[in-house]
């Protein structure tokens, strides 16, 4: 699967996903966030941790999340909901892991009221930190209008 993160004006980005099970999809313009697109954070962390059934694994298998649109008009033959019914727990676990890794990487608090226990071990964080560094560097090097192309 190929994932195109296009850098748009005004700190926006869009994503196009091709060569997955199911039709090609696009996520229209979204805010980038403080450092890089949230879904690029997912890609870096999920790959670093080998999470095959997280967000990007589900997308590869045909899931379509809120906001994604079909690139060409037509009917989605393979329901993305079936993928999410089977993989929903793994996708949610990946979301928690990605958010925790990003929290540690960006220096946000990891202790205190309302902050639960880490779903990651120190060995996991030793892999996710460098992966996020690399993703942030790659994103920073993309010129407005150009794409960062990633593979899953």
What does this molecule look like?
Helix 1 packs across helix 3 and helix 1 (38-49) crosses helix 4 (122-140). The chain is an alpha+beta fold. Helices cover 42% and strands 18% of the residues. It contains four helices and five strands; from the N terminus they run E-E-E-H-H-E-H-H-E. Strands 4-3-2-1-5 form a five-stranded antiparallel sheet, with no helix packed on it. It is globular and about 50 Å long.
- Number of helical segments? 4
**In which range does the helix fraction lie?**
40-55%
Shape: globular
Main sheet makeup: 5 strands, antiparallel
Residue-averaged pLDDT, rounded?
Answer: 91
Radius of gyration, CA atoms, in whole angstroms: 16 Å
Uncertain residue ranges? none
Key terms:
4 helices, alpha+beta, 152 residues
Task: Detail the topology: elements first, then pairings.
Elements: E1 2-8, E2 12-18, E3 25-31, H1 38-49, H2 55-60, E4 69-70, H3 80-106, H4 122-140, E5 147-151
Antiparallel strand pairs: 1-2, 1-5, 2-3, 3-4
Helix pairs in contact: 1-3, 1-4, 3-4
Can you summarize this structure?
This protein is of the alpha+beta class.
């Amino acid at each position: 699967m190929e994932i195109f993160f296009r850098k748009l004006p005004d700190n926006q980005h869009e994503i196009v996903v091709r060569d997955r099970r199911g039709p090609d999809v696009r996520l229209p313009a979204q805010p980038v966030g403080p450092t890089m697109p949230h879904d690029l954070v997912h890609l870096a962390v999920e790959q670093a941790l080998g999470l095959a059934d997280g967000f990007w694994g589900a997308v590869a298998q045909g899931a379509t999340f809120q906001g994604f649109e079909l690139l060409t008009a037509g009917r989605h033959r393979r329901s993305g909901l079936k993928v999410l019914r089977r993989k929903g727990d793994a996708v949610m676990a990946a979301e928690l892991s990605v958010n925790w890794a990003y929290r540690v990487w960006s220096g946000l608090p990891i202790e205190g009221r309302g902050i639960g226990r880490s779903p990651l071990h120190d060995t996991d964080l030793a892999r996710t930190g460098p992966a996020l560094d690399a993703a942030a560097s790659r994103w920073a090097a993309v010129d407005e209008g150009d794409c960062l192309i990633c593979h899953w």
